[in-house]
Amino acid sequence: MLLNLLKDSLNFYRRNVVFLAMIVLPFSISVGLFELVLNQSARPDDDMLANPLIPFMLSLMVYPISQSAVILAIAASVDGRYPSLPSLWRHGLRLWFPVAAVNFLYAAAILGGLFMLVIPGLYFMVRFMFAEYAVVLNKQHPLDAMRASWLLSKGCFKLLLSGFLIITALIYFPALMLTSVLNNLPIAPFFSEFLPSQLFNVLGTFYAVFVFRVFHQAQGEANTTPDA
User: How many independent structural domains does the chain possess?
Assistant: First the structure.
């Protein structure tokens, strides 16, 4: 089942990667360029903690919009529909607050688990992976979405965790190693930092495709179970 889901996710991703990239790149490029300019214009005596904090906060502000748009685009593409980019961004903007709230709860749960040890943090991360999808696709309240994710992910925990680890090992780690190599080369930050960060953002949509596939399957199984 895992290999079939990964294969289906990869085929879907290959067909739609340009569409997904067009959704996320305007946001990530804007944040990346802002960070690049900010770092280039920083004086040696500037507060070192202030520089990375501003782009980080900006990323937190735009992430709910782009992530909601990606989830909506994936759901529409599965049905053979390709909404316009402005309409996806508008829907993402309308969903900003519930998605931001569920991400805050998600991050709090993971951090709480990490304080206990790495394994509880990883466990909470997987069990709440469906929360964003429940908010965006089912229009659930953030707390209801967290509960729904906890219940839905119970039967597919190993599937989600295995898929996440495989995708990270085969796609994300090589990109991370490439970034590490580029950072050690005497080249401009545009090539060593900005471009790799855009690659990471596009690759991140593959995680969204896989989780959507598992979420869709888990919901279907729950709806066909009499006592669900």
Answer: 1
